[in-house]
Design a protein that fits this description.
Layout: H1 3-28
Length: 48
């Protein structure tokens, strides 16, 4: 395997880990609670 492929894979892993870390950081520090949403009634099922 070429050295450039290893560096590319490492860079992509770091990018994905960074984006995931920013998401978790924001998720942990959010002020409002998750809203309660009622489930859809069974008549609105389009998969029939």
């Amino acid at each position: 395997m070429a050295t450039s492929t290893i560096w590319l894979a490492l860079f992509l892993l770091l990018v994905v880990a960074g984006i995931g870390g920013m998401f978790l950081y924001g998720w942990k520090r959010r002020k409002d609670a998750v809203p309660k949403v009622a489930p859809l009634p069974p008549d609105d099922d389009d998969w029939k």
